[in-house]
Amino acid sequence: SEERKKGFTAIIDRRSEKWAAVKLVLNRLNILFTATIQNAYVIKPQGFFQKYSESNFKASLEYSFEVVILNDVGSLYNYVDKTELTPCLGGTLNYDHQDWVQHRTAIDRFSETCRSIASRLVTLKQIFDKTDLSISDNQETEHVLDVHGQMWFDVRDDINNAQMIGNTQLKCMKGADSTDQDTFSLLPISQTSVQDLQALVDIISRVRDKFEQVWERHQSCVLQSLQFTFFEREFVDVKNLFMVAHTKLSNMKELGDSVSSAAKLKKDTETFKEETKDAVENLTELCERGEEMIKNDHCHSHSIEAKCSELQDIHNDLNKKFDERKHNLDKSIEVHESLQQVTKWCNAGVDILASQPLDRFQSAEGAEKALKEIDEFLKKPQGVNLGKLNRMEKTAKELGDEGLLEQVRMTLARISEVTDMMSNREASFKKMVTKRPVQQVAPVAPPTTQTSPQLKSPLASKRKEGTSPLLNLKK
After folding, report:
1. Nearest CA among 271, 272, 255, 252 for reference residue 263
2. Which of 89, 170, 195, 212 is packed most tightly, with the most Cβ within 10 A?
3. pLDDT tens, position by position, 149-163
4. Is the full-model pTM beyond 0.85?
5. Does an H or E element contain 171, and which?
6. Which of 127, 144, 129 lies closest to 223 in space, CA to CA?
7. In contact, 18 and 44? CB cutoff 8 Å
């Protein structure tokens, strides 16, 4: 209190005692109250023989506070006002020592009760902190909360009883009809007792409110731990579903050996993706619940956030695998379509060569007709997609299917073979067309006769300009 900070004044009335008693009191004050005693006023002993011992007493004064020796009570009034002295010292202060002792005893007992309650609260807080929060079922959670709750309720009841006792003692100290505003109208000694007791009552009230919050947080944390246990179980189940789907999808490496088989594999992949929709819905629901728990300041927020992030990564990775699988099958279909088109082209070329009758090799007219068939065939792509054809081998390499790559290379070699056969046949026919006899005619203007230059077949001339799109592939 403010009085303690300012320090106290001790008044020692030993008029009927000896100097030894005075010295004993001063020694006790010097040992026990060195920080709070500012000065001491001693009304010296009045006995006949005591006046001869006064000089010896003064010579031994060595204290941490000032000691003033007074001859009589009247001298005390020069230092202390009568309003601050009790009637036994000629003052007007209404002081009952018995009441003061009772007040201080009550305050000390109440203070001891507060210390005991504080010690129990510390122990209870340690029990809360050491609680194993890896709770696995509702029954275990209820048991933990029942035990801890009863421990807290017992302490809280004691706090409430202590508060009631403290408030009752305050009323007794203030008087039956007094109010809080009347506190400062009390005597200084009673006022100090009331303030000390009121401070203890206020402290224990604040402690109760604060620990009520501790209990609520502990209760919430226990319930949230059970909630987190259920969340973890669902997390493991959902993760396992995605791991199984991921493994199954990783094992789906076949790309098909034809357009139809590749298309079927693509459809199977899409069907499998549809089958994972339930797992995706469970994942989405679990992540949404986790986000809601984080928003509500869950005590396991960091773990929940990490697990939700892990689930999202797994989901994104599976979607990426599905996209890669679909992309590869689309490329496989594209390659097989190109293989079909090229095979059809090669077969058509071979059929043209095989269908040409032998008599065409006997005359220039037959050769020219056969050359025209070859020329028309080579000028048109015959349904072959040249863009896909040009990137067919590169696509097969990217897919990493050795069987498909070998098939592509064999097909490209087949193109070269057919192209070479048609080029050879074309060269033979061109020779026959070029060697065809040309009729000699007389010139109109000059009178003399001369031989006109050898004419070339328009078809042969045209073939020099035209080139089959597939011939570029051979290069």
Report:
1. 255
2. 170
3. 999 999 999 999 999
4. no
5. helix 138-174
6. 144
7. no
Q: How far apart are CA 467 and CA 475, in angstroms?
A: 13
Residues linked to residue 70 through DSSP beta bridges, in sequence order? 43
Please name every residue paired with 370 in a beta bridge, in sequence order, or none if there are none.
none
Dist CA 68 CA 407 (whole Å): 122
Place of tokens 């609680």: 131
The one-letter code for the residue type at 210 is K
Cβ(9)–Cβ(38) below 8 Å: yes
Kindly give, in sequence order, each residue whose CB lies less than 8 Å from that of residue 276, ignoring residues fewer than 6 positions away: 241, 242, 245, 318
Looking up tokens 């999808």, which residue turns up? Answer: 249
Buried b (16+ CB within 10 A) or exposed e, 393-408: bebbeebebeebbebb
| pLDDT tens digits for range 75-85 | 889 988 888 88
Sign of CA dihedral 213, 215, 220, 224: positive
User: What are the start-end ranges of the H helices in 251-300?
Assistant: 259-275, 277-295
Please give the Cα distance from 79 to 239 (Å, whole number): 87
pLDDT at 337 over 70: yes
Two tokens, residue 415? 């193109």
Report the phi/psi class of residue 7: left, alpha or beta, with left for phi > 0 and alpha for psi in -120 to 50. Answer: left
Structure token digits, residue 342: 């090229």
> Is there a contact between 279 and 241 (Cβ–Cβ < 8 Å)?
yes
pLDDT averaged over every residue in the chain: 79
Tens of pLDDT, residues 413-462: 888 888 888 888 878 777 776 655 544 444 444 333 333 333 233 333 33
Query: What's the pLDDT at 387?
Result: 62
Could you tell me the CA-to-CA distances from 124 to 151, 183, 200 in Å, in that order?
8, 36, 21
Angle among Cα 191, 196, 200 to the nearest 5 degrees reads 145
**Nearest-angstrom CA–CA distance, 335 and 333:** 5
Instruction: Kindly state the tokens that stand for 457.
Output: 């077949």
Residue 146 CA to residue 132 CA, distance in Å, equals 15
| Beta strand extents in 61-105 (DSSP E only) | 66-70
Between CA 38 and CA 36 the distance in angstroms is 6
Mean pLDDT (whole number) for 208-235: 89
Q: Are the C-beta atoms of residues 356 and 296 closer than 8 Å to each other?
A: no
- In this predicted structure, what is the pLDDT of residue 464? 42
Output the six-digit token pair for 325: 């699988």
CB 341 within 8 A of CB 380: no
